[in-house]
Amino acid sequence: MAHAHQTDSAHWLAWLRPRSIAARLAWALGGLVLMLLLVLGQGAWQLRMVTELTRHFATGDMQRLLRVQTLSQQIEGAGSALVRLVHAPRADRVREYAVVDERNRVLDGIVESLSEDLMDATQEATLARLVASRKQYAEAFINTVDEIEAENLPAAVQMLNEQVNPALKALLQESQALLQRERQRVEAQLDSALDLLERVMWWLTALSVLAMVLAIYVAWRTARRVVGPLLQLETVANTIAEGDYAHRMALTGTREVDRVGSALNTMAEAVAQREQQIVRLAYQDSLTGLPNRTALLTPLQPPPVGMNTLVLMDLARLKGVNETLGYTTGDTLIREMAARAHETLAVAALEGCIGAEFVLARLSGGTMAAAVQVPERAAVERLHVLWERAMAPAVSCSGHQVDLSLAYGCADAGNGPAAPVPPVATLLRNAEVALHSAKRTAGSFAWYSEAQEAARLDHLSLVSDLRVAVAQSQLQMWLQPKFSLRDGRPVGAEALVRWAHPERGMVSPADFVPFAEQTGYITLVTDWMLAEALRTLQTWQRSHPDLSIAVNLSTRDLQDPGFAPRLAQRVAASGVDPKRLRLEITESGLMDDPAKSVALLHALRAAGMPLSIDDFGTGYSSLAYLQKMPVSELKIDRSFVDGLDAAPATQRLVKAMIEMGHGLNLMVTAEGVETPAERDTLKALGCDVMQGYLGSRPLHGDKLDAWLLSST
To answer: Are β-strands 367-372 and 689-691 bridged in parallel, bridged antiparallel, or unpaired?
Structure first.
């Protein structure tokens, strides 16, 4: 029995002091919920009483009070109406009868409703007396009306004073007594409601204070029994996060915390086991299994000593393969390229062409890097031959035979094998410079040189300075006149950009325009040239109203859908006739996106600006698109004009161009005319306008002003 008693005591003690956080929180939250329910229940019961009292007051007492007030008002109004009736002419009595009858009906209705609603004995006695007075008033009213109808006004007045008014006075006294009693009842009800509301507030305040005390106690107990073990758990988790996977969580006596601690210990063991796998994935390319860029630049283990050369290989046309045959085919090519490249390195190491240790890494896309040790550059060139031989066989992908065509960029320490080896990051950057140089040459293989680096830095510096040049007006607009072949008169000029660099002097457009095209800065140049051309045309409004200026548009401008409306708005704001601003578009630029280009040209032409196709014959335009373009001028490239007088075959080709242009109602202009013989030949072939050194070189400043004076 004693053992059973001890067992029951332990059971109850465990139930009262549970080890589970859930049970502890259940106890705490249960007490809070119970207290909240008590508060809400008491509050709801008290509020229900207040609500019921308020509803009874609003629908009963107040309504009855209003009816009693209305009763008094109707009694007073009845006396006034009866007086008007006694003194009213016969023609007005019908209206007065109606008023008196209406007041009597309202009065009777109120009396009847009060007789059904009153529950107070005093009020009922008062109402009984009021009803008796109402009967006396009704009899006196009838007698008075009889005298009025008999046209006995003195008797009617006497009846009104002796019978009606005393009855109305008694009726009014009883209604006032009834009203006074109702007011007393309403005030008593209000006092009762206020007392009840005050008791409700005291109850709610007391219960709220009790709930707050209980909540503070529960929070303290929770912090002691729950937060403490959780803090231990947090400490262990932070220790594991710092890399100490050997640290373990001890038992705390709290069931959930012990479970989490056990799971944390298991996680620490799993993390310790998988850390090596994570590191391996971070340093390995998932597609080829080769080291990635991170492994090449920051290897976990020190790289082999003596690696002095890095070769960067890039798979050509990978983007086209992905777009045409899909990314699966592209991945197959990359894996095959990696396998062949690695096998070639292994063969080269066996032959002694390179050192026994090497690293082949995939950087991104179809680009891979090989870090090797070689005695001299000839060994790398031998390795290049082996790679080319290994990559020669086509790869079968999804039923297609695809060639592996690679470009190579090489970088080494330079100055012989004894030169100090630069960091891998430096070799990689230099190899990328050489790779870009190789892609621009037919050989597809190049060594890094300081000249390449200097050229790239020089171009990058120029592009960076170009924005400043536009902002500070370092650019200059030179004009090369255009002349009519029919009468030799000037018809306009082509705007050519020049850059007066504050440090480099005059910079040729060939040195910065191509890179400005690539970076998108060419749009800044175009905007500046258009603004300058419009400013110049404004100054020519009176002196040279027939001359036009042609400005070249870039491919970037043709790709901007907002270019046409912006330019049209600018021309309109300048006040210049749009016909005097000619826009020249290269044939190759048009064919980059013919549909979009044609739409833009139509928008520009709709704004009134004439359009020219520049360098015609050197691009890939088709006659189908040419006839859709709203152009007004065809400019024959200078390559067809050079030595035209001595080249009959070229003359036939140029004549065909001229006839085609005239057939499309286009003005034909020849560029690069430098000799009288070329000019005469073009004139004989039917060309309209010429441009070149024979007519005038590009002009600027004083020379341009002098030419303008001579042309007037």
So the answer is: unpaired
